[in-house]
Amino acid sequence: MSTPNRVYIARLAGVAVFDPNGDQVGRVRDAVARMRPTQRPPEIVGLVAEMPMRRRIFLSINRITSIDPDAVVLGSGTLNLRRFEKRPNELLVLQELLDRRVQLDTGQAGSVVDVAMECSRGGEWALTRVAVREQTGRLSRRGHLHQVEWDRVRGLGVVGDNRGTANLLAVLEDMRPADLANALQDLPDARRNEVAAALDDERLADVLSELPERDQVEILAGLDRERAADVLEEMDPDDAADLLNELPPPEQDVLLDLMEPDEADPVRQLLRYASGTAGSVMTSEPVILPPDATVAEALARIREVQLSPAVAAQVFVARAPLTTPTGRYLGMVHFQRLLREPPADLLGGIVVNDIDPLRTSTSLTEITRRMATYDMVGMPVVDRNNRLVGAVTVDDVLDQSLPRDWRDRDAAPTPSATDDGTGDDD
């Protein structure tokens, strides 16, 4: 194996995994160690890699030919695609050891910030060294960092409830919200809720939108109501409405009353629409501009970083007021058309209105058919007075078309039961 003799595992988190042909198959998310009955350090048996569609699989350490800070390379053979499941005598190093509060043999208390695995001359990988930061008791001062042998640290043998979240958050901070949501699903419920609660409101709102409804509700229930309302305010109104729909009506009312009125009003409106209709799946905050706005103004608006690609793909043109429900809806302009027109031209001169907008009662089946027929990324939704009340985008349609539990990793189909999720995948 062409690889450094010692590798610190937290530095591997997110590193790309490549097959022998140089094609990326996933990214490293953790290392799997097997506890031993003796005092010997745990043996590393493999890595956990996350593949497309959020599937996590086991990669036997015997299949890995190279490990470095930029890439993990696999040898020849067929990947075992069965979803990874941890065995009772196994340990997920980052998930279970990072931030563990421990004690050095000198009596100094500290917390684990990283763990190193090392390869012996016989080719066996084991956890050999632990990076421990001292606890100083002073918020303004960081404790000294010790890198010591595994057997010099007490408190590593039994998984307890004395682990913090700071270092785990540091490992997870660069993940996309969907990937972070996926990582949270692998944590025990108490640990997941602890990590989720430590995220800031905006980050937690993004992550909640990517979780199954069951996990959304459990995490929200673990927050105090004021914090829960703050997080709901950071969510897109349609996502907040979907989450509130999972709660009993009295709890919905309490949280909505705690939200700022201008944040709660569009959510209340969305909750009034029947499930499976355009009104229930639309976003009430598309990009809306008046007909006398210029192409340059429209391009500046859709460049705003908080807009999703689907929402930024088109500008809807309407008479004032420009918040939903707007004045009379006039039409829409796709961003590709904006790129082709002179910056000083007015939107009223290039607006397209030859496709009938959706109504709030339009069914999901009809929405899907019409968007596919016209190759649309987004479609306007109007009320009976032809006022724009929102827009259905392609991500809304996909979210509603997939099975209800598609975000739940445990519900995903698995390969043949004869595969071994944690055994050798040669």
Automatic annotation (TrEMBL):
<dbReference type="GO" id="GO:0015095">
    <property type="term" value="F:magnesium ion transmembrane transporter activity"/>
</dbReference>
<dbReference type="InterPro" id="IPR046342">
    <property type="entry name" value="CBS_dom_sf"/>
</dbReference>
<dbReference type="Pfam" id="PF03448">
    <property type="entry name" value="MgtE_N"/>
</dbReference>
<dbReference type="InterPro" id="IPR006668">
    <property type="entry name" value="Mg_transptr_MgtE_intracell_dom"/>
</dbReference>
<feature type="region of interest" description="Disordered">
    <location>
        <begin position="404"/>
        <end position="426"/>
    </location>
</feature>
<feature type="domain" description="CBS">
    <location>
        <begin position="351"/>
        <end position="409"/>
    </location>
</feature>
<dbReference type="InterPro" id="IPR000644">
    <property type="entry name" value="CBS_dom"/>
</dbReference>
<keyword id="KW-0129">CBS domain</keyword>
<dbReference type="Pfam" id="PF00571">
    <property type="entry name" value="CBS"/>
</dbReference>
<dbReference type="Pfam" id="PF26205">
    <property type="entry name" value="SH3_actinomycetes"/>
</dbReference>
<dbReference type="InterPro" id="IPR058838">
    <property type="entry name" value="SH3_actinomycetes"/>
</dbReference>
<dbReference type="GO" id="GO:0016020">
    <property type="term" value="C:membrane"/>
</dbReference>
<dbReference type="InterPro" id="IPR006669">
    <property type="entry name" value="MgtE_transporter"/>
</dbReference>
<dbReference type="InterPro" id="IPR038076">
    <property type="entry name" value="MgtE_N_sf"/>
</dbReference>
<feature type="domain" description="CBS">
    <location>
        <begin position="282"/>
        <end position="348"/>
    </location>
</feature>
<protein>
    <submittedName>
        <fullName>CBS domain-containing protein</fullName>
    </submittedName>
</protein>
